[in-house]
Q: What sequence folds into this?
């Protein structure tokens, strides 16, 4: 079974978590989506680059989530979510592109 690239998992987790929370009006459910995607991505980051890569990218994932909130006040919710998801995708790609 082919693996889904981790940049796509991380970006989809951020976008999907927000979309789930917004459309269901259940923030904890959005948190579940965010956490599951982050966990799957972290497992793959560890396989691709080791513990250090997984820890670093996981911290970036949490920072992207947290950073989207103040950014949303400046540019709007959806643009903020897409911005941090894109940045997270680029970071995941850059950190794992050589290693799988």
A:
């Amino acid at each position: 079974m082919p693996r889904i690239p981790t940049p796509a998992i991380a970006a989809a987790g951020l976008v999907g978590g927000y979309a789930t929370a917004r459309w269901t009006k259940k923030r904890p459910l959005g948190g579940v989506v965010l956490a599951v995607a982050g966990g799957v991505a972290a497992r793959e980051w560890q396989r691709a680059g080791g513990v250090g890569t997984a820890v670093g990218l996981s911290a970036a994932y949490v920072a992207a989530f947290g950073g989207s909130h103040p950014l949303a006040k400046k540019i709007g919710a959806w643009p903020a979510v897409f911005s941090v998801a894109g940045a997270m995708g680029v970071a995941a790609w850059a950190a794992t592109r050589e290693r799988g």
Observations:
- The two ends are 15 Å apart (CA to CA).
- The first helix runs from residue 6 to 24.
- Helices lie at 6-24, 27-49, 51-75, 77-96.
